[in-house]
Amino acid sequence: MANIDKRTAYGGGKFGEFCFDSESEIPNLLLKPPFPIIGGPGSWAGHRLLTVGQYAHSLPPNVFTEAEKAEMYRYHELVESDYRDAEGPYFYDFAGDLYCRGNIPDYEQVPKLPNLSPSVVWVLRNLTKRVFVRADVLAGDLNVVGPYFGPFGFEQLVLFNTMWSDDPSCNMHHDEELVPGPWCGDRFDITTSDVVESDARAWEDVSKEMRKKAEMVLEENY
Questions:
Q1: What whole-number distance in Å separates Cα of residue 131 and Cα of residue 116?
Q2: For range 101-118, the mean pLDDT
Q3: Distance (Å, rounded) from C-alpha 2 to C-alpha 166?
Q4: How crowded is the C-beta side of 154, counted as CA atoms within 13 Å?
Q5: Of 4, 67, 123, 149, whose CB neighbour count within 10 A is largest?
Q6: What pTM was computed for the model?
């Protein structure tokens, strides 16, 4: 996964293993400030996120600025690449070479929100498309507490929906239905449902649609 605005890349390897082998702090990174967690919660909130495949030799539309695309083309003029004559620059190599690399800490190593109330509903918001997903609906559990849950939680939803590649094969069932994801390069945050309800601007609830996607993925891949 790449945070385009922070020029930071995380993870690698087979997509299914990256998604499901361990939980990480991605929910904390997307928390809408202010929340009292040590370690910079919300540092990814509102940033463009993209989960890019190794065979992505084109760019998702309407994600990168002209200056960013020009930088990638200059990079590929200097670096030997099998994809120099493809539709666009090879972002996988570009991010791997020029973005800061990091490992997202495992779930057990990350501090959690204290004193979570079971009466509070948490939501993931896609700020670009102005849609949101409720934690309880995505989890299929009305009693889920907080933004941390699995096996298909907010983290997996963002990873799956921001996948970009020119080859849909991701070593998973239904891969042609999953790649490319509908939210490539979009901006996100995690907050509570009352924030959405109090916003005078319109938001669309896509929780049920995303729950169906979670069920499809989990049925044959988890």
A1: 24
A2: 63
A3: 17
A4: 28
A5: 123
A6: 0.85
Q: Edge-to-edge, what's the strand order for the sheet holding 122-126? A: 188-192, 122-126, 131-134, 204-205
Question: Any idea where the domains of the chain sit in the sequence?
Answer: 2-220
Task: Dig out the tokens for 85 from the structure.
Answer: 């004559």
Please say whether the beta carbons of 33 and 42 come within 8 A. Answer: yes
| DSSP strand pairing (131-134 vs 122-126) | antiparallel
Tokens of 100: 């800061």
Lowest mean pLDDT among 30-39, 85-94, 132-141, 198-207: 30-39
